[in-house]
Structures are given as C-alpha cells and as structure tokens.
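## Example record

The block below lists the input lines for one assembly entry, exactly as stored, with component labels intact.
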Amino acid sequence: MERFKVKLQLNGEAVELDVNPSETLLETLRDRLELTGAKDGCGLGACGSCTVLLNGLPTRSCIVLTAELDGSEVSTIESLADGTKPAPVQESFMEKGAVQCGFCTPGMILTAKGLLDRNSRPTKEEIIRSISSNLCRCTGYKKIVEAVEAASSTETPKT
Amino acid sequence: MITSKFEFRSPKDVEEAVRLYREFQGEAVYLSGGTDLVPRMKLGLEKPKAVIDLKRIVPLTTVEDQGDWIRIGPLARIFDLKQNDLVGDYFPALEASLEATSCESLQMRGTIGGNLLQNSRCLFYNQSEFWRRSKGFCLKMGGESCNAVPGAKTCFANYCSDNAPALCTLSAEIELSGPDEVRRLNLEELYTNKADKPFDLQPGEILTAIFVPKKKSIGGYEKLRVRGAIDYPLLSAAFSFVDGTGKLAIGAVGPKPYVVEMKQPSHDAIGEAVEVVLKQVRPVGNTVLDPDYRKRMIPVLAGRLINKVMEGAK
Ligand SMILES: Cc1cc2nc3c(=O)[nH]c(=O)nc-3n(C[C@H](O)[C@H](O)[C@H](O)COP(=O)(O)OP(=O)(O)OC[C@H]3O[C@@H](n4cnc5c(N)ncnc54)[C@H](O)[C@@H]3O)c2cc1C
Ligand code: FES
Ligand code: FES
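Predicted structure tokens for the full assembly:
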C-alpha cells in the first residue's frame, strides 16, 4: 500500500511524516511520535479524550486521518507549558481541583484553550457548551467550569 | 485502528474527484469531515480501496446569497454555518438544528453535506466487527434478516441527521454531480425509504450544493436524547412556517424524515399532521430508548415545538 507524505506544524515545529493512509492522527501522535498526552478513550469520536488543537480548533484526533492534514497546524497538550511552567489554564485546573483521575484532562484543557483563544471572556453558558464536548466520568464538571472561568480572567488573549 | 488498507487522494475539483472514483471502480468513498465515515471504517462497516478527501475543493465550502436561493456548500462546517447571518435571519429551524447537532468540537469538524449523507444507525449495527460476527450479519451488512427485530426482512435502522428534517421543512433542494450528469432534486427525493440503503445516489455522485429558498421563515427544532450533548437524536421534530404554510418533519425514527405540510398550525392541524406521521413510522427496539416511548413522544415534541414557534411569532 502507498505511503502518504504529510507536512505539519506540530507544537510549533515543522515535521514531515511518511504515514500509512489509514493511520489516525491519534495513532501518529501516540505510537509514532510518542506524544502520549492525547488519550485513547472510545476511539470513535464520542468522548473527547483524544482532543488536540487542529488549526486552533479542538478536534478529536481518533477520527481524523493524518493523511488529511498536509499543511495543518497541530498542538497537543505537551505544547502548553512553558518549560516547567504550566499555562494559566493548566494552573487553574490544578488550583480549582478540576482533575481527578486525569484521563479526560488533556482533552478538557485543550477544549478550554480552544475556547479561550477565540473568546477570552466566555460566559458560563459558553464554557459549558464548549466543555460538554468532552466526557468526564469523575468530576461532575463543576470544578472544570470553575477552572475555565478562573482561567478566562488570567489567560492572555491571543495576539 | 482501521484495519482495512486504502489509498488516500485529495482532488482539487469535483471533476477530478469523480474521475478518481471511477479509477477505483466504485470501491472508493468520499470524505468530508470524517466524523461519520472514520468511525464506520474503524468498526469495519466500510472497507474502501480509496478515500477521496473533498476538503480541498474550495468552491464546495462556501455559502452564497443567490437572490432567490441561499446556496450552501456541502463542505461548510456545522459550527460555521450556525453562526452564518443568512441562516440566522432566514432559517431559524436550521439554526436550531445545527446548534443541537452532536457537540461543539464535532460541529467544528463535521460538515452539512456529510451530515445529510451520514448513514442510518442501529444499536445492532454500529458495533465492532467482532460483536457483529457473534450475532450474525443483519440485512444492512448483507445478511438474511434483521437483528433488532429477529426474523424481519426489513431494515429498521434510523436516519439520525439532525439537519435533514429542518432542511426538509425549508423545502431545500440538492445538487448531485456524478460521472454522467449533474442533477437537482428536492432533498426529500434523496431518500429511498429503505434503511439498509437510505440514499438514492448513483455511484460516484457527489453532493455539490444545497439550495434553500431565500424566504423569511419562523421555525424551530426539538431533539430527544438521553444526554444534552454529543448524543445523536433518538427522535426529532423540525418545523418551519413560510409564506403562510407550515411544514413539520419528524426525524430519527426510520430511514428518512417524515414531512407533512400544514395549512394552519392550529391544535387540530397539529393532531392531523402527527397522525399522518404515526401511520408511517414503526419505531423498534434499536436505540437506547423504549420504542413505545419514542412513538408517544412524537405528538409531544411536535406540539411543544409548533406551539413554541407560533407563540414566539405573536
Ligand atoms: C460521537 C458522535 C456524535 C454524533 N452526534 C450527531 C448528532 O447528534 N446529530 C447528527 O446529525 N450527527 C451526529 N454525528 C454524526 C456526524 O458528526 C455529523 O453528521 C457530521 O455532520 C457528518 O459530517 P462529516 O463531514 O463529518 O461527514 P463524513 O463522515 O465525512 O461523511 C459522511 C458520509 O457522507 C459521505 N459524504 C460526505 N460528503 C459527501 C459529499 N459532498 N458528496 C457525497 N458523499 C459525501 C461520506 O462518504 C460518508 O459516507 C455524530 C458523530 C459522532 C462521532
Ligand atoms: S478517543 Fe477520540 S473521542 Fe474518544
Ligand atoms: S477526571 Fe477522571 S474522567 Fe475526568
């Protein structure tokens, strides 16, 4: 079977990949590039634990083929912190206790980040609408909403 | 993991896409956002030799005011479309159904064309190949009979597009471009009324445009689901009132939206319209909700929706 060449801007760096056309972005990230922050939950687009930012938009990487992405920009949870300094939205998740088992957390944080990047002061309703894309089986969402609310006042608006 | 192996192509125009389809002798599938197709490939419900990505065909992504019609490119994403002013100003039923579709992240990837052409669903069908083999293949997988209603020779899968009912109430038309011709038909004519093969599409045909009459309407959408987000509809009702005539469409309970015209949105007329639908639908135990409950919710959703829309218009 033919291989497929894809150029990506991944976490700020240009990468060139030679992938199998049936490979999902989640497989490329986890298995090929060892970026295991995005989690493999349902594998069918239902839970959001595999969320990454694709051209700035929260996207379920388990149902995207890497072959679709030539020329795209992908950011994973690994790119958020500045060295060992967590991003404001990560800080708020820790401060507010919005993490229990942590499985949904990378996806939740990137969904929140996607929202805050396009709308630095979302209403509570907008926050709920965004993060209800992602399933969390532990927290009951209350702390997550609080964390995003807190981050919305600290997150630097996109320049 | 997708176990089938395929080639991947990104044509730049419709002609090239159709030519590629021919090259793979029909064993190719078109890809838009992939939010329906990729899960199907993962479950082994689709095993194409080639995937033809339509996303690089720019003219398919735009929304255009053509005077008498609004032309919606099938590759327009649900998320962008629901924020489009033309949709908000003219088609409130569609605006509401776009908002109710899956969840925000999936709306950012999923397109309106893929939404209309998503395959029908059943609790006994949208399962892994391993699961399905253990039960024996049903009609929709090429088997002899239905697994939801054992022994039945009819497929009862549900067509769960949230936006098709709304577009039907707005009298939308679609353009299909295939190897031999470009044809335009009413959206309602797309459906075969057979759940195992829900669309009357010729091999290789691409949905290249959706046209909605540019007329001010009032309308809305009601969706029954267990969770308020992500879930597919388990029943839905769309209603639009345009030029003094109402149209009600009931979705997610059978292979197509059931559309009824109503001259007057009066209490009696709602009852009569619902009766017309009830005579045609046969909900069975192939979703997570009880079929009798779904059936009894048809008049409830329809009445609630139409009363709300007409109240709002006063
Ligand atoms: C967890 C989950 C929840 C969902 N919930 C909902 C929901 O609540 N309501 C709902 O309506 N949908 C739901 N969906 C389905 C899906 O996300 C949407 O219907 C979406 O709009 C499909 O668009 P797409 O571009 O991703 O389609 P794709 O997956 O790209 O395509 C769908 C089908 O149409 C064909 N196709 C696509 N474009 C064309 C074209 N232009 N011409 C010819 N054929 C074409 C493809 O070959 C494929 O068979 C859900 C999906 C998931 C994974
Ligand atoms: S793992 Fe991708 S949505 Fe669940
Ligand atoms: S913290 Fe456990 S799933 Fe969300």
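Chain A has two domains: 4-78, 88-151. Helices of chain A lie at 25-32, 88-95, 105-118, 124-131, 142-154.
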